[in-house]
Amino acid sequence: MQVTCPVCGLPVDVPDDALSGEVIEHDCGTVLEVVRDEEGVRLRPLDDIKEDWGE
Asked: Residue 23's CB: how many other CB atoms inside 10 A?
């Protein structure tokens, strides 16, 4: 399925079996998180991805 990128407005191919929380890198350089809710599937930009070193 195609969902619109919330940053650049271009279509993003999202697999039909994508789960909420999955991360997709879009061509515009934005890292997006899949969100599934009662409204359907949408994407939101991930502002800050940090490694978790158990701290």
From this structure: 11
Side chain identity at 45, as an amino acid letter? P
Rounded to whole angstroms, the Cα distance separating 42 from 37 reads 8
Output the pTM of the full model.
0.77
Under-70 pLDDT residues of the chain: 48-55
Burial class (CB in 10 A: 0-12, 13-18, 19+), 48: exposed
Radius of gyration of the chain (CA): 12
DSSP 3-18: EE-TTT--EEE--TTP
Fold topology of 2-45? Rubrerythrin, domain 2 (2.20.28)
State how far the Cα of 7 lies from the Cα of 1, in Å rounded to an integer: 18
